[in-house]
Design brief:
- It is a single chain.
- The chain is an alpha+beta fold and 148 residues long.
- It has a domain at 6-108: Aminopeptidase (3-Layer(aba) Sandwich).
- It is built from five helices and seven strands; from the N terminus they run E-H-H-H-E-E-E-H-E-H-E-E.
- The protein has helices at 16-24, 26-32, 39-51, 94-105, 120-128, and strands at residues 6-10, 56-62, 65-75, 78-85, 111-116, 132-136, 140-145.
- It has a seven-stranded mixed sheet with strand order 1-2-3-4-5-7-6, with helices on both faces.
Length: 148
């Protein structure tokens, strides 16, 4: 069942404690193949991310509550996208709704999403939003939107 009240807004410093708690979730970290950070490392990372004007950073709100984040950045000549939701929001269509809204804001193409090979849920979200597999290796799948 998809939530009808998914909204994106700019990331605020007040959102960071919730993001921090989300990334501490062991199951979520395993799904993302991304290690959790301690508070100091987490805050240093977000300070750096928030200070780069080329990054596009949005907080995902569901019914007015912080549910996660969706971001885009440039790396190795590609514009990439990533998102993270609190586990209580999984399986409800929230990531798909947030990504759909984000793609209406971020017009840069091609846009790349890197996912852990075992993260079928994230792959489904990207594919529902028009991304297609462009390459993969033993551990990772790369999907792209708008490749020629």
């Amino acid at each position: 069942m998809q939530s009808k009240n998914v909204v994106l807004r700019d990331v605020l410093e007040a959102d960071l404690p919730t993001f921090y708690e989300h990334q501490l979730d062991t199951e979520a970290a395993q799904m993302a193949e991304f290690p959790s950070r301690d508070w100091a490392s987490f805050m240093a990372h977000w300070k750096k991310v928030m200070s780069d004007p080329s990054n596009i950073l949005k907080t995902i709100l569901v019914d007015g509550q912080v549910a996660g984040n969706i971001v885009s950045w440039a790396q190795a000549g590609e514009r990439e996208i990533g998102y993270w939701l609190g586990r209580e929001c999984w399986g409800k269509g929230i990531a798909t709704a947030a990504l759909t809204e984000f793609l209406a804001l971020v017009k840069t193409r091609p846009l790349y999403g890197y996912i852990a090979k075992h993260n079928a849920a994230s792959r489904r979200v990207l594919e529902k939003c028009g991304f297609a597999v462009c390459r993969e290796d033993r551990e990772e799948i790369v999907l792209v939107l708008g490749a020629n």
